Amino acid sequence: MGTEIRLENAFFTLTLDGETGAVTGLENRATGASYFAPKRAGRLPFEVDAISANGSRFVDDPFEEQNGGFSYYEPRCDNRPGDLRHLREALPGSVQVRVEDVDGGQQAACACTLPGGIAVTYTITMRPDSPLSEWHITVENTGAPSSVDDQMVYRVAFPVLDGLRIGAKSAENMLARPYAQGELIPDPANHDYRCPSGGPLKRHQPTYVLTYIGWASMPWLDLYAPGGGLYLASYDPTFEQVDLESWPEPVHGTITLGMRTLAWLEPGQAWQSQAFAVGIHEGDWHWAADTYRAWAHANLQPYAGPSWVREECDGWLGTGGPMPFDNYRTLLDDARWLGLNYLQIWSEMIEPEVGEGRRKSYYCFLLPDPKRGGEAALTEAVRAVRAAGGHIGFYYNLWTWDAEISRALAPYRDAIPADVEIPDWWGTSRRWASVFPDGSRKAGNYVNEYAGMCPAAEGYQDYILSWVVDRYVKQYGVDTWYFDSMPVTMFGASRICFSDEHGPGAPHGVGRGCLDVLRRVLEAARPTELAITSETVSDAQMQYNSHALGVEMVAGLTTHPKPEIYTYAFPEHPIFSGTCNGAGSGLHYYYPELTTPRREDTMNRVFLMGYRFDILLQGVDPADPFHQYLRRLIALRQRVKGELYRGDFRDDIGLGALPARVDGKLFRHRDRKGMIAAIVDRSATREPFTLAIDLAQHDVPAPTRAVLYHLDGSEETLAAVMDGGVLTLALPALKGEAAAVQVWG
Q1: Beta bridge mates, 105
Q2: Peptide linkage before 527 cis (omega within 30 of 0)
Q3: Residue of 619, 553, 611, 603 lying closest to 581 (CA atoms)
Q4: pLDDT tens profile 232-274
Q5: Which DSSP letter does residue 442 get?
Q6: E strand spans, 638-704
Q7: How many angstroms separate the CA atoms of 669 and 58, rounded?
Q8: How far is the CA of 572 from the CAs of 22, 304, 470, in angstroms?
Q9: Which fold has domain 307-642?
Q10: Which fold has domain 4-178+218-299?
Q11: What sign has the CA pseudo-torsion 330, 334, 335, 341?
Q12: At the topology level of CATH, where does 648-744 sit?
């Protein structure tokens, strides 16, 4: 241990080893909490992934094995040797550390050299009035003394914070991750970072690594305990591909958190990272979400979906499978009976038959199915829906392709318009395909997996626009569109594409390609204000999307879903949930005692979270009890949606204790002059109870009026009692499973 260097302000103290540049300590000055377990800190806060520059440009390594947008790497296994060198130890005598004053604060800079002539400099800047420290790293691939030892830099992990544990007990720690809509992991040092069985993903898929843009909906992590919290975030408005990593160390009761960014450097090239934030706080993950939201609102393009989605739309009625085109207008009437005005249609395209009654479902060639009337019938149906004031959109999966597309479409040649090209695999579309780090491509045919496309391929983007914009928007007349699996699952595609036939010609993350597709579609569709949705939510994509499909109630992703994390961070982003992907199969994660969940339970959860209703039915039966329930639940939402859709999701902040099996979520009017409470009562016998809200925590004044809205359509005025900033309302027994309370200041 060398000379200790201290960076300190009113909020926290960070210490480094003056000889090695290693981070050795981090302490919360307000609570006294230390963020590193004793004797577990003390390594350089970065790692450089490199390969030889004298061999293939591809990377064959266990660390790069992947599927469905996830890394397959399992640190507990005896992994085979691979091409990657994970460089973290500086050459002896190469480390230089200095500290200087910067803008009234302090900055520590550490420079060192790694084997193979890779020079690294990282800085940590601490401002006097901020709980956030700013971290940057620069990597220069100067080349080795002998060219036979030259390396290519692939990715740079930074910051890497080893040995984290807040307090003495790992069991008291919680880790908030932006896995889809959110995940909240208790005792993260001992958590099993694998998908549980029973869901849509491969059983026991590792989830140590979350890619942004991908399964990570935002680029931040937050570890907290009673003694305080630690916030780690990537601040990059250019959206270079970055992996959020969580590596548990159960033997020591600690966890390592880090960010690993794509930084492809040949000898002679240099790279400067995006900004990273490492911050400390008191309380839980809400602080982290508030902090990241402030950065995002200042640096990302603001959300601006069509007003009918943002302010009016309560959900969609859709089809998960083929339906005759001339049924769409009747389906709109069904939607309106429920209280909706939006049709989301899937399986509208040709779906080639493969024998035994099977089809290539959700096919990649979007010609409207000729057996249902083709372009003419679909155009007539769409225009009938739009003329009646309804909204209608269709489907395309961003990744999936058929390497046998020419053969599959042979029976339909006479029905394919002369101006439509079939992108043959060997003639055209293979150049658009995603290339994995080891140089391989998938060449599936929808029966045996898929061929995976790369959204960064300009030719593939042109293909998407030729269908979605040129035909569906401008010729057929649709005003919404759904991109499936975007940015998640990545069927047949790599998180980082190594193709040199498209994109920048070097390894590139697929996230930027996703954004390019959305931007180009949105711009080309004008003057139509196209509403775009995708699966699942991503703060980067919501710069262009108008809404997103939620997966928070789907089994098999995580045993600790916490969709409140994304919804609290970005309450303005509409999320649709309720049916797709077997929604409801994961309700037991929220309600362990719910052994036989009903569809009503799933939709109640949609209501509770303020989400829009995703309803897939082939039609509505007014006599069906479930359809009647949906109608009442949507009508209840409509009583409060004017303020709810324009307001802020406040989760359960300041919400008093509720009776067993009664759940509540709070929403604040955007002008901070009122609040809404969504309530779901799952108890067998409903009883009166007290609803208490600490309005001071929401900066909302004492109410002048309070109303309870029942599921049966009735309402009651409530007597508001204030005591020291806390509002207390005595609620009668609810007339149904769901209710809403609105108060006005």
Answers
A1: 102
A2: yes
A3: 553
A4: 999 999 999 999 999 999 999 999 999 999 999 999 999 999 9
A5: -
A6: 648-651, 662-668, 674-681, 689-694
A7: 53
A8: 41, 9, 30
A9: TIM Barrel (3.20.20)
A10: Beta-galactosidase; Chain A, domain 5 (2.70.98)
A11: positive
A12: Immunoglobulin-like (2.60.40)
